[in-house]
Amino acid sequence: QVQLVESGGGLVQSGGSLRLSCAVSGFPFSEWYMRWSRQTPAEGRELVATIGPDGITNYIDSVMGRFTISRDIAKNTVYLQMNNLKPEDTAVYYCHALDSSLTNAYWGRGTQVTVSS
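^ that's the sequence the OP posted. Answer follows.
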């Protein structure tokens, strides 16, 4: 059974840090593109970070230098370390996976991140 379960969200002050975790099961996630996206009612959904099967990472400009995506294959977990958080980072953060053919995808249920000013 495929599962992606996010954790680590919460309320933090501006300038603070959080680490999101995504526990993965049911498929060989190290062979997939693992991603973090975020969604707000006003802005909709936005892809934040990706780590590919080769370990190469990509970020949107607004989080470059503040967020780090990583994975622990032994623990079947993907992480998003978020530093120097800003109020505009407030969103529901989703972990999701895309296979190498870019045709199959799995999504977690999301975790809320709220950054107060």
